[in-house]
Amino acid sequence: MKIKSAEFETSAPTIASAPRWTLPEFAFIGRSNVGKSSLINLLTERNALAKASVTPGKTKLINFFRINTNWCLVDLPGYGYAKVNREDRADFNVAVANYIEKRDVLVHLFVLIDSRLTPQKIDLEFLNWLSTIDVAFSLVFTKTDKVSMNAVESNVALFKSTMKSFMTVSPKIFTSSSTTKRGRKEILDFIEAELAR
Ligand code: GDP
């Protein structure tokens, strides 16, 4: 898919103030610092579409970007904030959970995982919750340029085997790197195929 246009549409703190449209949405989520802004910028070829926040967890809003006029990319606040107070964090988890569970135009959720790490509790907890609700999702292992392909493969395999304890069907897996552009074509092709369904 060629990205002809990518425009910031709006930010919303909760699903109640999200745009009322029928555009299909593809959302991105992951712990802070996983490389979500970098991946969104890579996919859209816009260097600062998703601004990397200075303070981890500062981006608390759900951000909507209209792509090519026919779909919407949604940047969800990261989970696992280090510097956000308890109250904000609770609010956010509820807003994000509501978006994922109830947003009827949500087509697919990409869950970003740092490919350098063995399965982390916070990601597994999130995936465990995700497996209990009716949402199509896949995993994107980020920053693959930072480690050997062996390490990436071994972490992916470890993830798959760990997920088997709470998931019957293994989700689709992508690998990405914002420096080598790995994964860009695969993710955009996947979105294109979903749009054509
Ligand atoms: P976010 O908090 O999830 O939006 O993460 P960012 O996109 O801001 O990335 C966090 C840090 O990791 C930044 O310093 C990025 O430059 C770096 N980073 C993100 N993706 C990659 C990648 O694929 N390769 C490398 N080498 N660094 C990355």
UniProtKB/TrEMBL annotation:
The entry's keywords: Cell cycle, Cell division, GTP-binding, Magnesium, Metal-binding, Nucleotide-binding, Septation
GO molecular function, one term: metal ion binding
InterPro entries tied to this protein: G_ENGB_dom, GTP-bd, GTP-bd_ribosome_bio_YsxC, P-loop_NTPase
Cofactors required: Mg(2+)
Keyword Cell cycle (UniProt): yes
Domain EngB-type G positions: 22-197
Family annotation (SUPFAM superfamilies): P-loop containing nucleoside triphosphate hydrolases
Superkingdom, taxonomy of origin: Bacteria
BP-aspect Gene Ontology terms: division septum assembly
Record PANTHER family: ENGB-TYPE G DOMAIN-CONTAINING PROTEIN, MSS1/TRME-RELATED GTP-BINDING PROTEIN
Biological role: Necessary for normal cell division and for the maintenance of normal septation.
Family statement drawn from the similarity comment of this UniProt entry: Belongs to the TRAFAC class TrmE-Era-EngA-EngB-Septin-like GTPase superfamily. EngB GTPase family.
Protein name: Probable GTP-binding protein EngB
Phylogenetic placement of the source organism: Bacteria, Pseudomonadati, Verrucomicrobiota, Opitutia, Opitutales
